[in-house]
Structure formats: C-alpha cells, structure tokens
Amino acid sequence: MKALQITDYKGPETMKYQETENPRVQKKDILIKVDYSGVGLIDVIFSRGFGQLPLPATPGLEVSGTVIEVGKEVTDFQIGDSVAGLTINTLKGFSERVSLHEDYVVKVPEHLELDQAAAALTNTSAALILLKEIVNFPVGGSVLVYGPTGGLGSQIGQAAKLLGAKRVLAAAGNETKRQKALKLGYDAAYLREEFFTASEEKCDLIVDPVGGENRKNNLLRLNAYGTLAIVGNASQKERADIDPDILWLNNINLTGFNFGGYCSQNIKKVKDYLVWALELIANEQIKLPKLHTVPIDNAVQALLELETGAISGKLLLKHF
Fold it and tell me: Enoyl reductase (ER) domain spans which residues (predicted)?
C-alpha cells in the first residue's frame, strides 16, 4: 500500500508517495479503499514540524471511498458501501486504504458524490458543531468570519445563515477572495486589513481561523456578551497578546475550538453531525467551496499552493 508521507519537517517539498504498512482491521473497524482524501492547511503545517509527528508520518483528516472489509462485530456496514470517514484522530488519511473504528465512519447519501463527501466531512460538521455546541450562537444577530472562502470559513458563513443569523460578514485576505465571499452569500465582505477602517459595525460572534494581530482588535468589535471564537492559526504568525481585562470590562467572551479534540471526547455526538453535514450538502442547503482535485502522486505542488493561499476552496487528493 502507498501513502503520501512526511519524511522530515521541511514542508511539502520533501513529502514522498511511498510504500507503507497495510492497516490492521480490529473487531469494530471498517477498512476503506480510499477514493478521495480531503486536505486542510493543517496537513501542510504538520509537514513544517507542527506537533512533531513521529516520522515517517501520514497526514490527512478525512477520506471517502468504498468498504472492502469489516470487523467481526460491525453490523451497520457491509462490503461495497460508499462511506466517508474521519481520520482526524488517527491521521493517515493520505493513504490508499484506512482502517477506522465504525464510530468515525458514515454512509454517503446516494445522491452525493464521493468527492463532495470527502470535502464536507470535517469542515461542514465542524462549522455546525461550533455554532450549535461551542458558542452562544446569536440567532437574529451578526457573525463575522475570517478566511471566509476557505474550506472551513465557507461552511461557517453558510451554516450561520442556515441557523438563523441575521447578518453574516466576511473578512477576506485579498480582493479575489472578497468577491468570492459575496458569491457564497455573505451580506458584506471586507478586506481583512481594512475592516477596522471601512466599517464601524459590531458583531455578536467573530470566528477566526487566521490569527495574527487582528485577534486583539477583534475583541473591540464585539457586542456585549459576544464571543471571539479561535478555530485555528493559519497565518502561523506570532501570537497576539490579549489583555483579559478587555473581556472583563466589556462583558465579552473568548473561546477556542479544536475539532480533533472535540471528536476524541464526543465521537457519538459528532457522528450525528457528520450525517447532518452530508445531508445538508446533498440537499444543497449548504454549498461547498470550489473543489481542487489532484492525483495524490502529484500533490506536492498543490500543497505548496494551498500554503501560499493560491488555492482558495477545498483541496482533494484523488487515489485513482
């Protein structure tokens, strides 16, 4: 079996598509022949040494494909089922085959393509969990989303609308992405660095997967009892110092959300969200961003483009 692996911490440039061990199937496991692997910026960050994964390491948080073997105690899946699976806690998603506990696997609706399933599994479900379980979601209120056209941001904006936000704003990294955000249904879209001069609007929820100095400034753009939700650090810039007195004096909240950690602690609940996410995509209640699909043995250039921001949307690796 082959997998795309991190062999040192020098980045995507030195990742190798090479032979590795076949996965083992335990009694509650499902073996999936992978058609598509979803890619997140975190996979690139891993290749730069974040987390210091033991080498060689196979990244990848989500897959879709076909069941080719089931453990002896698995009853809800059978060989030939089209499925999507979260590899977020085991990684190894950039592999030809993955073995996952049945709790991390869901069936793909008949009217949903496998590439769409791989693209939706992590980001759409994470957006729904963030808004339903983690923050005090402002039904009838306003939401500002950084990275609004990326895999996660594009889903947060639409999910917020679906769940009852009155106004959803975007803070984009460049003009092209700002225009794309408007096409995704945001009520207004600003350039990230100009938001604080172009608008005086305050929000009930600000979602930031980007990081940098704007985090500190965002606290001053929250309404009373509003929340700044930190869901990533895509910029990998130096952390902003946040004065806790700002939270205290303005009656505002600061929270973090790590989807992988949440999955490891609440997988039974997460599985319901995985099913819901795929149904929303299948029924076109939430739209995926543009999908960029490349063969896995030709993935290095695409990973570098994802790192620089040249790819906006969702990157998928194809195994056939």
Answer: 11-317
Same domain for 248 and 273, yes or no, is no
- The 3-state DSSP composition of the chain as helix, strand, coil percent (nearest 5) reads 35, 30, 40
Q: Are residue 189 and residue 221 in the same domain, yes or no? A: yes
Does one domain contain both 40 and 144?
Answer: no
Q: 264 near 140, Cβ under 8 Å?
A: no
- Write out the H or E segment, with its range, that includes residue 315: strand 314-318
DSSP letter at 131 equals: I
**Per-residue pLDDT band at 47 (split at 50, 70, 90):** very high
Indicate if 246 and 156 belong to the same structural domain.
yes
Confirm if 158 and 181 have CB atoms less than 8 A apart. no
H/E segment holding residue 112:
none
Backbone angles phi, psi at 16, to 5 degrees: -130, 140
CATH number of the domain where residue 289 is located: 3.90.180.10
Same domain, 207 and 266: no
Range of the domain at 313: 2-122+260-318
β pairing state of 222-230 and 203-208: parallel
CA distance 38 to 295: 12
Angle at 33 between CA 1 and CA 28, to 5 degrees: 105
